[in-house]
Amino acid sequence: MKPLKAAATTSQPVLTIPQIETIFFKVPELYEVHKEFYDGLLPRVQQWSHHQRVGDLFQKQASQLGVYRAFVDNYEVAVETAEKCCQANTQFAEISENLKVRSTKDVKDQSAKNSLETLLYKPVDRVTRSTLVLHDLLKHTPSSHPDHPLLQDALRISQNFLSSINEETTPRRQSMTVKKGENRQLLKDSFMVELVEGTRKLRHVFLFTDLLLCAKLKKQIGGKSQQYDSKWYIPLSDLTFQNADESEPLPIPQVPDEELDAMKVKISHIKSEIQREKRANKGSKVIDRLRKKLSEQESLLLLTSPSMALRVHNRNGKGYMFLMSSDYERAEWKETIQEQQKKCFKSFSLTSMELQMLTNSCVKLQTVHHIPLTINKEEDESPGLHGFLNVIVHSASGLKQSLNLYCTLEVDSFGYFANKAKTRVYRYTTEPKWNEEFEIDLEGSQTLRLLCYEKSYNKTKQNKEDGDSTDRIIGKGQIPLDPQTLLGKDWQRTVIPMTGVSVKLSMKFTSREFSLKRMPSRKPMGVFGIKISTVTKREHSKVPYIVRQCLEEIERRGMEEVGIYRVSGVATDIQVLKAAFDTNNKDVSVMMSEMDVNAIAGTLKLYFRELPEPLFTDDLYPNFAGGIALSDSVAKESCMLNLLLSLPEPNLVTFLFLLDHLKRVADKESINKMSLHNLATVFGPTLLRPAEKDSKIPTNPTQPISMGDSWSLEVMSQVQVLLYFLQLETIPTPDSKRQSILFSTEV
């Protein structure tokens, strides 16, 4: 300002005096306010003690906000005048784009250039920052300290001032849809993944009463407070979820399950390492390094796992796509936006200053402060449940009309919610009775969510690419998974009330320790819970009758069933079949032909799960786990095949019989959606989970690992072992065994 003023009185002025006074209106006065505050604060900070007082300085600064008010009122005019002067005067344009700022701090980049517009925004930004400082300062000032009431007063004045600016900058230009004088408020915010030209980006999305703002968290440089960059915004009056011209939605790039599992393994590894270091009281540097690694891995998982699209469009054409892992959250966002849209009618646009102010206010307003990683959990927060949750979805009531209904269940694990189970569709009724049981793996889970859908059979409306069916959500609800109530062994009945419908559930939780125990049966003549060698001897067969019967029935009519083996059968049907096999009921094959094929798949899985010793045996389990971890592929193949051939004959023959069947199921993956990896995930723990809970993977025998940490590693390892055999082209078993397996009439 000073050189421009000096030049104005010469024969070659750059700007006229009135232009300078308009652009730099109240800047000298603001400078004085800042200087006085700084000069007062510096000596007090230099002689700091607990009794030192600074409240009067903040209070005085707050009382001078009238100067800022005058500056803000003039801001638009100042920026417009500067823009006009730039267009008319190239010399001024050059100056105003390349302003060097003297910094009191030792700034690395002394040559950083600022535009005049950026600098003119600084005083407005200063009020926002001072308000944040006051906020933090109050947190650290005891209420008995004489500064406390003064700081509180200063904060109150500053906050009122800020909200009055936010309120007034808009009505002065075109009026907002939200009534005049009503504040723009934050309704909802969360971290989301945005798909930008095929690349996944982590965003923080803010829904205000009149617009949706998508922002990106700036990288924090040395101790600076959080800051956001706005990416785009859509006024709610212009926002739609469908875009008329976009008939072919873009495909969503999916990340293979194997890669996601590998990330989870890494995360579990790092977590157990951190626990070990904590126990060994190693230096915090080691732990900090591990925490950094953990944070990187968890962020990567968060970025790559979501695959459900939430599309938003601006009526003026531009569309954006978020990816989510939870339909519950997707529905919540849609509902909240649609509800708010009923109150928004007029379109508007923000000036760059308003957008900047709005983005800056996000730091203070945000409700979700951390990316949802376990690393960001407070030390005293509940670690959540690790184990199995058995859930029976019984029935729904309260519907006004007959519908085709199904439910899905979501739980949170690794910091985010994902869909874990889905009931079958109950056709055209007001009182669906599913009675289906699901076993859900819990990984630090705290909440169970249930969604109830109406199935749409209208194929034309379905976007196959989008993974988005037109099934409508009828209701949704959630219940906390409270360790206190769930740790009792028995089933707990509960009702999830939702708008328009309520669903009855029963739940039973089994912690890791107990779920690892296989219990031998007390019925010596039964099939379930009896050693496989005992059953085959008694039946004079090489493969138990139950395995042959179930596989035969599934081969006959279940190979094209979507989600075969993954979708749970009805719990009561499975119990009926179990009893029939246990009592050697002669009508079992007739019963099977009339049952839902998922119940037959469920019975087979239950049989393997209830064997007193897993099919791969307790003795060989640690060796399989060690073999799969070998990095040399030749050594791995030789080790794994040798181990397989060392299994007792009934176990080996039954496994090869099942393996051939599972490969045939995966051949129809395009129809049944069951890949080799999906099948390995379902059957791995069932065939390998050891009977004794102390048979851990040998990581480092001297270091005990806690149940939660090692558990996911162990499950992943079991999945990997089975996947390995499923992916082998052929298994060269010794001729004698192979012959007897394939051509034995007894099989």
Automatic annotation (TrEMBL):
Residue ranges of domain Rho-GAP in the record: 530-724
Keywords assigned: Cell projection, GTPase activation, Guanine-nucleotide releasing factor, Synapse
CDD domains, A to Z: C2_ABR (cd08686), RhoGAP_Bcr (cd04387), RhoGEF (cd00160)
Domain DH: 1-168
A Pfam family matched in the record: C2
SUPFAM superfamilies: C2 domain (Calcium/lipid-binding domain, CaLB) (SSF49562), DBL homology domain (DH-domain) (SSF48065), GTPase activation domain, GAP (SSF48350), PH domain-like (SSF50729)
Subcellular location: Cell projection, Axon; Cell projection, Dendritic spine
Record-annotated PH domain positions: 185-342
Main location class: other
InterPro entries tied to this protein: Abr/Bcr, C2_dom, C2_domain_sf, DBL_dom_sf, DH_dom, GDS_CDC24_CS, PH-like_dom_sf, PH_domain
One term of GO molecular function: guanyl-nucleotide exchange factor activity
GO biological process, one term: intracellular signal transduction
Every C2 domain range: 369-496
Cited PROSITE patterns: C2, DH_1, DH_2, PH_DOMAIN, RHOGAP
Superkingdom of the organism of origin: Eukaryota
GO CC field: axon; dendritic spine; membrane
Entry protein name: Breakpoint cluster region protein
The organism's taxonomic lineage, starting at the top: Eukaryota, Metazoa, Chordata, Craniata, Vertebrata
